[in-house]
Structures are given as C-alpha cells and as structure tokens.
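Appendix B: complex inputs.
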Amino acid sequence: MSGFALQVENLVKVYESRGRAPVRAVDGLSFEVKRGQIFGLLGPNGAGKTTTLKVLNTLIRPTSGRASVLGYDVVAQPLEVRRRISVVIQESAAELFLSTLDNLLTFARFHSVPVAEANRRAEKVMDLFHLREEAARKVQDLSGGFRRRVQVAKVFMVNTPIVFMDEFSTGMDPILKRAVMNYLREEAARGRTIVLTTQILSEAEELCDDILIMNKGKQVARGDLHALKLLSEGVYDVSLTFEKLPAAIEQHLAALAPRRMRVTGNTVEFSVKADEARVLALVAELATRERVLRVEVSGASLEDIFVELMK
Amino acid sequence: MTAISAMLYREGKIRVTNLTFIFWDLFYPLGYLLVFGVMMNYMVGTQFPLAGVDYNSFFLAGVLGMASFGIASNTSWSFFLDRDNGIFYEMLTYPLSRAEYLLGKVLFTVFIALLQTAVTLGLGSLVLGIRVRADLLPLLLLAVAGGTAGWFFFYAIFALWTRRNDVFNSVTSVFYFVFLFASSMFYPLEPLPTWFRGAALANPVTWHVDLMRYLTIGFGNPRTVAIEAAAFAAFCVVSFVIAVRFLQEQE
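Resulting structure:
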C-alpha cells in the first residue's frame, strides 16, 4: 500500500459543452498528501478545488493525468477508493424522507458498520452535533442548518481512513463549528486523513497541517502555515484602538499604501509591507496623536497571503 | 452483496414512509382488472375472438405487464428526487459499484411487484374465477421480477440522460402511449392490420405480455413465446448495461 493518502500527478480536467469554449478547471495539478494530516485545498471560486475533490471522490474522471487514494487509482479502481473514503459534498445532501437517526444508520450500513456498533456511534454523533432532539424527525422538516449538520455528522459514523469535506462549516453556528474542528483534530490524531476545502481562511489557518492554494486550476502555493507565511515576509497586520480617533488618520495611512485598511469606530486596522522597525515607529508616531487603548501587531494572516497570491 | 442489501434497506426505508403509495402499487392492477377487464368482458362477451378464453383471463397478463411497466416508471422518478435532495451525487461516492447501485435500487420495487402479482392472481381467481397454470407460476414470478427490473433499467437510461424531470415527464407520457397501446396488452394482434401487428411485434411490451400470457393461461405458440422471451431478456440486459454506462458518465 502507498505511503501517501493522496497522490495527484499532472491532473487535468477539461469540461466540454456544446456551443461553449472548453473550460480547463484543473490544469496540470500535482501534489501528495501524507496520511494522518489535515490537508486544506484553498482558492477563490472557480479555482478548481471542487473539481479536484470530485476526481479524488470518483465522481468524475480526469481528462488526463493520474490520481490515487491510498495507492488505488481513481479511474482503474474506483470501488477500492470508495471503500476508503467518506465525503461531505458542497451541496446540501440528506435523505429527506428519513429521520435524522435513520440517515445516520443508513449511511453506516453502506459502510458495513455492524448494527450494534452503528447504534452506539449514532448516540455519540447525535450528542456531538446536538441532534438528539431531532433524532426522530424527518430531515425534510428540519432547517437548512440542521440538514447540513446531519450531512456532516454522517462521516463520523464510519471509520474510513480518508474524509473529504467540501466547505463543511456552511450553515454551522460558531460553537458547533468549534466542536467539529476539535473532533476533526482528534480524528487526524488517530490517523485519519482529512481533506477539506474552505473559503473561510481562518478555519484553514487553525486546522490544516498542510495547505495548497490554487487558482485557475493550478497550484500557486503549497506548504504548512509557517512556510506560507514566509511568502509574505515583511507584511504586518496592525490594529489600534484610540480613545478618540485622530483627525485625518485615513489620509495619513493612505500615504503608506496599506494593503488593506478598515476604520471601525475608534479602531483602525491595516496591513502594511515594511520592515519591523518602521512598523513599530509608525505605531509610536500614531500613539502621539491620541491616547491608545489597545495595540496589536502581528505577522500576516493566511488571508493576507491569499489576497497577495491572487493578485 | 452488502452494498446491494444496504441499497435495498435504504429504498425500503424510504418507500415505507409512504404507505398510500405502497397500497396503490399493490392493488391498482387488480382495480384495473376489475374495472376495465370486467367492462370489456361484458362488452365483447362471446364475440371475443379467442376461443375458450374470456377477456378477463386474456387481460390478466396485460394488467401484470402494465403494472411492471408502471411501477418501474415510478421508481425511475426517484433519480430526480435524489437529485433534488442532493443525495444522488453523495451516494455515488458510497462503497458500491454503479451496477450494485442500480440493482439495489430496483430490488425493493421487484419485491412490491411480486406482492402485487400475488394479490392480483389471488383475488383475480377468487373474484373473477380466472384459472392460472400453477405449474408455470414460478416462471411467471420470474418474468414479473425480470420484467420490472428491465423496464426500470430502460427508464433509468432516460432519467439519467435527460437529467430534467420535465423532459422525463414528456418522455414517459410518450412511452406510455406508444408502448402500451401498440402492443398485445389490451387486445389480440391477430385480427389487426399488418402494419400495426408489425409495430406491436417489435415492441418489448408485447414480448413481455405474450410471455406472461403463456405463463398464466397457456395461450400462445410455445416456440414464438420462447423467441419473445429471449428477446425480452436481451432487452433487459442491454438496458441494464446502458443504464450502468449512463450512471458512470454522471458529472
């Protein structure tokens, strides 16, 4: 068996449709993912993330190139791949005519989980996702947020070595999202490989051991958070809260060509590319204008890097 | 086998949430036989052009064929429900092959079709006095099961191909009209014009109904029926292969 959870080699996917120019959704993508990692696939809309996931999930075939899951080729051995994965697709997906509990148990049955074990896991999963009160209700009677919970909850009913999650946190409240993220970390620590796509960069920043940023079907950056942050070395995020907002501060800061700037109430947040000494001098200079209540200077966030790479 | 049984379990779970539909599936062939069959029997009386067989007995196979055709069409609608629920694409990532997916999906319907046949034969015999050949009953049940599955695979091709329920609705309406009326379902073909007989003999509904007519009342030439049975079996297998192919091409 392969030492890698995922191997993608020069993957190309072109969508052809009559009367329209072909769309090259994935364009020569290559990467490998180690087992037990939380791997994030990031990119703007139309970057090719979901298409890449669909190839790995055996939902679509690549136009060229190779992709394998735990050493099993997605085209030649799709059933072997499906036996080792569970997937949360981007769209809402649930058995609307079945109850919440039946949704969980039916999914477990497809993955050959014994009935007693499935019942035990269903109890645990319903607690985690706060679904116990909805256990007997048909999913068609639940709100969109609860339907998404049921959909995500299903993957925790099984022990597939790889879990794919496309925008998993859509419709989740912050408390549930945090609980799920903690659970994902535990699952990864037990050796499961989690592959996720997300537009919420703070999620990826917090969760992912390894990140691949793609745009227009190609890789634009790859590495762990520290490696990615090196890409925007010298970029600092500054946040200052004044007792009273200094006059003409926006014009003053605009002269420094900040990458982004936001004024909310008496708080100014901006991002600048400059050496550390200059940033600190700038903060000191601003502090002479009005009394500062709170100051925060940090390195660039994943969002800064993402924006920089997409330019 | 686990995958097919999981699919069967899933379909069964969903279908039992709608008991009205199951009741209708079980009793509508009998209702058809009682309403349409009895009226026709009364109308044609002794003038029915098949010596020794009344219209009810003749129509029994037609009603079973219609039930197979109808229940298969209804089941193929579930592709659209699954698409609307979003579960269709998720299920394609489950650990089962495309062939297992289709077989599992049709098994519960086949089970209902067999119950439906038992109800129709039992009450048809009690109420209308229809005598069915007991020695051929196992083969009749096989023909019902195979036919229901075959028609489901046939419909699945169009459901997977069109991907739009409004288009599929038009397709099934045309199929109902053409397949059911240009066949031996309601009337014997012998007295009909040559062009109509030609069209009906090329129709898989005729092959299926003729087979079941032989298996219920022993009507028909055994050699011709054997050829029709082989043609219908080939039709079912080809429909299955094409449906699997279409399912593999879903993007």
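The first helix of chain B runs from residue 2 to 15.
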